[in-house]
Design brief:
single chain; mainly alpha; Tetracycline Repressor, domain 2; Arc Repressor Mutant, subunit A; 3 domains
């Protein structure tokens, strides 16, 4: 009878990493791991307690490996892009370990908390941005988060095999996004403000939100029809209007009623049309009332909600 092979926690972890590299987390089982180690299951469970314990150890090590790569990327010039390129290279080079490292165990977290927890290097990135581009404070933080959001999207494309991007292609994409964000930050008075509605035409908001939502919601067939030829909205069509609102904004009619119980159905319809950037004149046609009535309704709504809607 063969003697049991003595294994250490380090050997178990190294073998588990190799198993995940080749077959992903689904391939990491007690059988696959003990086969790779040529040992019994008791050795694994004595060291890590369970296969969940082994997986968590691999996750921690995967994050350490990614951060070691990124730390090395800081030596590149500019160092901020070096960090991003090292992040992307880890995704391309170690797709299964990258997926495990970036797995979000706190889905209720904000994207800032997600990046700070799983990627890190915020202080180093902000310092590198300041040194390379003379951008500081909130603008530097915005650049850090936005470019890593772009990088995360590219990384997911790579690890899932949707598009076989090379590191050279990734570099060009990140460079273009970097220049675009720098242009926005340094633009001063944003020329896109000319596209914003007049004060009485719709709710106040930042330029980026207005342009994005105007573009996306404008692709809906019903909204396209109503913008081209405003007409009275039938009761059955309001379900589609609410669906657009639910998919495009961070609130719903239900959440509005929960926060402001005294809102009427008419109030909510005014609110929806305002957030979809219909003018007062257009709202009058869509609701079958006069522009003066729309204005009064908006004023009453503002009082009920204690927030600006125009």
């Amino acid at each position: 009878m063969a003697r049991p092979v003595s294994v250490t926690k380090e050997k178990i972890l190294a073998a588990a990493i190799e198993v995940v590299r080749k077959g992903g987390t689904a391939g990491l089982t007690a059988r696959s791991l003990t086969s790779a180690l040529n040992c019994g299951a008791n050795a694994v469970f004595s060291a890590y307690g369970s296969m969940e314990g082994v997986l968590e150890a691999v996750r921690v090590e995967a994050r350490n490996m990614m951060k070691q790569r990124m730390s090395a990327g800081r030596s590149l010039n500019p160092s901020f892009k070096g960090l991003g390129m090292a992040f992307m290279w880890f995704a391309i080079d170690e797709p299964e370990l990258f997926k495990l490292a970036m797995e979000n165990k706190a889905p209720e977290a904000s994207f800032e908390e997600y990046f700070d927890t799983y990627i890190g290097f915020k202080q180093e990135s902000v310092a590198a941005i300041a040194q390379s581009f003379d951008i500081h404070g909130k603008d530097a933080e915005m650049l850090y988060y936005q470019l890593f959001l772009v990088g995360l999207g590219l990384a997911q494309v790579c690890v899932e095999g949707h598009i076989p991007l090379s590191l050279s292609q990734v570099s060009k994409i990140l460079g273009k996004n970097m220049r675009a964000f720098l242009m926005v930050i340094r633009a001063g008075t944003d020329e896109r403000e000319s596209f914003m509605p007049q004060k009485e035409a719709g709710p106040e908001g930042d330029v980026d939100s207005y342009l994005l939502m105007h573009t996306l919601t404008g692709q809906n067939h019903l909204l396209q029809e109503l913008r081209a030829n405003p007409r009275y909205i039938q009761d059955e069509e309001w379900a589609e209007m609410e669906r657009v609102l639910r998919n495009s904004f961070s609130f719903t009619p239900e959440s509005l009623r929960e926060e402001y119980p005294n809102l009427t159905k008419g109030d909510i319809r005014i609110y929806i049309l305002s957030h979809l950037h219909f003018t007062v004149a257009e709202q009058a046609v869509l609701l079958g009332i006069s522009p003066a009535s729309v204005t009064k309704a908006r004023q009453r709504l503002k009082g009920k909600m204690d927030e600006p809607i125009e």
